[in-house]
Design brief:
Length: 415
Amino acid sequence: MKKNISIQKKLLFIGLLPILILTILIVSLGMILLYRSYTISIQDELESTTNVLIDCLDLTVPGDYHYENDILYKGDLNITTSAMMNRVRERSGIDTTIFWHDTRVLTTVVNESGESAMGTKASPEVVKAVFLEGRNYYSNDVDVYGMKYIGYYMPLLNSNQEVIGMVFAGQNRQQVYDKVFSVLTWFVLFSMLAVLFTSLLIRLFSKKMTADINGINEFLATIAKGDLTASLDEEIVQRGDELGTIGQYASKMRGDLKNLIENDPLTTLYNRRSCNNKLKALENEKIDYSVVMCDVDWFKKINDNYGHDAGDHVLIKISQLILDNIKDCGFASRWGGEEFLLIYQLDYDGTKARVEQLQKAIREYNFTYGDNEIRIRMTFGVETGHKDEPYEERVKRADNKLYIGKNNGRDQIVY
């Protein structure tokens, strides 16, 4: 038989697959959006830093810039100091640089060995955009002294609007990536916890559902093997979903199938097959019982005079009287045609009293069909036997006594 994938695994797969795909998409999109948002924020911060740096120089020191003997002046004041720029770096992590033409004359940029970038030159594209064209320049892929920066460049102007240099503010790109990665790590961790929590919920739900499905499956398999005594767990039947409905139908099917197999469809008494099974059970359990074989007298005349529907009506009513008489102490079956087999789990005296009550009830009952009143009488053969005797022998003797009663005038009980 082909091995099937369990419903629990399928539910887990179906439930987690879209969540995993969505998580991957969200993380990927989040990484892009977060990086873009962060770089835009950095661009604004770098632009603000360059503006502040230039404004501080313009507002606090009068005069134009000029560069002599490796010293940068503004007016008559030597501004070749990076104290303010170092403070900016300490507080914000932003490196700053002042260029004279294309050369770094003041900078906080150092390489991995700690060597200052002082005296190094800007890249040609930066020089072209800022120094030659006089416009601001921004890039997230700026090469500064062999390192990658997210940088912002602004022209440095004298009072005559001549571009004499540049001001740079930037952040090491790897540091930016590390910050973004740190945020994303928490985001991914949270997403993984959400996936784990969801998988646990799906597992718990699917485990219960799978258990109930397996319960229904085992119940139906037991019925398929012919055991109609099986019962379905009440928790399954009481479920308020489709599985509960399936369980209800399965239980009803078992009951209907049991009735179909065990009961006579007309009288609802046990049929001959199920009666034999119950007798075997009594025999195996060594339980004392009495056997009564009975038959409706002159039944053929009822069918001939009033029709077969009238005969069926009589059999149904007799069966009801039999059930009322025997239901608390035994069981009864339609043995064949108008013949019935009654099993009393009583001793001889108890059985005798019950059979006489039944005979009296049948004689006094008003059997009517349409406008016709039908007189019904029955003959009974009673046999007690002993518990170690095969049930077939006891039934056979009760049947012989029935025929003795039939041959001796009917409407009697033969003990």
